[in-house]
Design brief:
Blueprint: H1 36-39, H2 46-60, H3 70-81, H4 86-96, H5 100-109, E1 121-126, H6 129-147, E2 160-165, E3 177-179, E4 182-184, H7 189-200, H8 216-223, H9 239-250
Helix pairs in contact: 2-3, 3-4, 3-8, 4-5, 6-7
Length: about 270
């Protein structure tokens, strides 16, 4: 704190109502998921900021109001750094004309934005009710022991970040492990250990369903809204997911057509 009571960053200190300066928590510490690793992270370089600004211009062109692009721009920061840093938050705020508090509120609300560096592959083990009963807890414990890391931590080689995840609507293939949000169905402790070993060896296997695996930064770029040339390169929905649709087709059943603006409406609708 300087002689006039300002913090080193030039921001007046908060007060507790008695005139005494209250403790001010740094911006990067508001997220309870943060750990010590984030405090020592590298700042965004000038080149990285320029790349983000160039891509952001493409994203902003899709929206009538700049602030509507907030979530895609956070993905752009994550695509560049592997997480959303305090520098990234400030950059997004500057691009969109928002406060850092407004950007931080979004970055800390949604769990898909990482607030500390993430591994090349984010491995999520579903431990919600059905997956847990069918072995999800055992899979998570096996990976935790095998990798030597806890929930939310990353292996020393930077390859794998491990975390619990909630239901991903794949209960028909439980227990499920997600890698960068792609499905690996019907897993066991042994198959999950083999999966992470291949990820660490640079030999990512094909998901059970969905596109070939991308790295965490690559998938963040796609989630910002940029084209995915491999979207249809892998298996689609499996038989269990399509059972209801096939049954309806066999009975000649179909959903009613979606009403359009000029379609006649039933009386009282």
């Amino acid at each position: 704190m300087t002689a006039n009571g300002a913090t080193p960053g030039g921001v007046p200190p908060a007060h507790d109502g008695t005139g005494a300066a209250a403790h001010r928590t740094p911006l990067i510490a508001f997220d309870p998921r943060l750990g010590p690793a984030a405090a020592a992270a590298d700042p965004l370089s000038a080149d990285a900021q320029q790349r983000i600004r160039e891509r952001a211009a493409q994203v902003l062109a899709r929206y009538p109001r700049p602030r509507s692009a907030l979530m895609p721009l956070l993905y752009l920061v994550q695509a560049e750094q592997g997480y959303v840093s305090a520098d990234g938050i400030r950059l997004v705020a500057d691009i969109l004309g928002l406060t850092t508090a407004e950007v931080t509120a979004v970055a800390t609300f949604y769990t898909m934005y990482r607030r500390r560096p993430c591994g090349r592959y984010l491995v999520g083990v579903c431990t919600n009710t059905l997956c847990a009963i069918l072995g999800g807890d055992a899979i998570f414990d096996a990976l935790r022991e095998h990798l030597g890391i806890e929930n939310g931590e990353t292996t020393p080689d930077g390859a794998v970040t491990l975390e619990h995840i909630e239901c991903n609507a794949a209960c028909d293939y439980a227990p499920v492990v997600m890698v960068n949000w792609e499905f690996f169905d019907n897993q066991t402790p042994a198959s999950a250990r083999e999966l992470v070993d291949r990820l660490r060896a640079g030999d990512p296997p094909m998901p059970t369903r969905g596109a070939p695996l991308r790295t965490f930064t690559e998938i963040s770029q796609l989630l910002a809204g940029f084209p995915d040339d491999l979207a249809d390169a892998g298996p689609s929905a499996g038989p269990a997911s399509l059972a209801g649709l096939e049954l309806a087709r066999s009975r000649g059943e179909a959903a009613p057509p979606f009403p359009t603006e000029n379609a006649p409406r039933e009386e009282g609708a």
